[in-house]
Write a structure and sequence with these properties.
single chain, about 280 residues, alpha+beta, four-stranded antiparallel sheet, 4 strands, about 65% helix
């Protein structure tokens, strides 16, 4: 057990260091020269760097320090310590290892936004996989949800990042800063989702039907998959019924839809997108 814990701890540290390096390369070589601020603490730091020419890593840490202090008193202390460690490592690597050594890409701003978003997304995903976060809007999102439980973290992050993108228009003195920043932010999110949840997305289908076994048999025969049959009862009618539950790839969904239609045209079907199936 101790050996497994040590192995996991080493893996977390390696993920954190690798993530910090990739994150820093994306920020220094692509995001910073594009004069964009794609949300979060680093977005504020990039605007500060544009105005003062101070190092981005140390500015990011300065933005995170008051947030970490709030997290210490209002959120989990374990979360705060891990976040503080990740913020410190990312800032040090960015200012003292990547900035002096890595060249800056001087091409098109759109390319900067795309490639910067990819690299920052990969770096952040590795940091998340280590059990840490990069601070910034993540901490603000958790704090907002604690004070306003009805507000989802996703909406809180959207509000914060939207505000930073809006401010960037006035700091960089052009609307393109917000537009390219939005592109970079979108790419980051997609890359993070793909790395954390995998690329095995599909659909979860719940079928309320009078012919569960017939549908199940056709799923097995025609899709080479299986299904789960769950007894249920209607809340209004009180009648006994059955749910057939299965998951299919998006490319297979049209075949499943045909199977359901041919077997029970009165079936009630609910389809939910899944991020990962294993």
């Amino acid at each position: 057990m101790n050996g497994m814990i040590n192995k996991n701890a080493i893996k977390d540290v390696l993920f954190l260091l690798a993530g910090a390096v990739v994150y820093s390369i994306g920020t220094h070589s692509f995001i910073e020269p594009a004069n964009i601020a794609p949300g979060g603490a680093v977005g504020i730091a990039l605007m500060g760097n544009f105005l003062t020419d101070l190092p981005v890593g140390r500015l990011t840490l300065a933005v995170n320090l008051p947030l970490l202090a709030l997290a210490w008193f209002h959120l989990s202390r374990k979360f705060t310590i891990r976040t503080a460690a990740a913020c410190g490592i990312c800032s040090l690597i960015l200012d003292f290892a990547i900035a002096p050594l890595c060249p800056i890409y001087g091409g098109d701003r759109l390319m900067c936004s795309l490639y910067g978003g990819i690299l920052v997304g990969v770096g952040m995903a590795l940091i998340f996989l280590s059990g840490s976060t990069t601070g910034g809007s993540d901490v603000v999102g958790y704090l907002m949800q604690k004070k306003y439980p009805h507000v989802s973290i996703g909406r809180a992050l959207l509000l914060i990042d939207g505000l930073i993108l809006s401010i960037s228009v006035f700091v960089f003195k052009n609307v393109d800063a917000a537009l390219f920043g939005l592109i970079s932010l979108y790419v980051q999110t997609k890359v993070i989702d793909m790395m954390i949840y995998g690329n095995d997305a599909g659909s979860k289908v719940s079928i309320i039907t009078r012919f569960p076994q017939e549908i199940g048999n056709r799923i097995i025969r025609e899709l080479d998959r299986t299904a789960t049959i769950i007894p249920c009862r209607g809340a209004f009618s009180g009648q006994e019924s059955t749910i057939v539950l299965c998951t299919v790839r998006k490319s297979e969904f049209s075949i499943l839809k045909r199977i359901i239609g041919e077997t029970d045209e009165n079936a009630f079907v609910m389809v939910t997108e899944t991020t990962e199936v294993f």
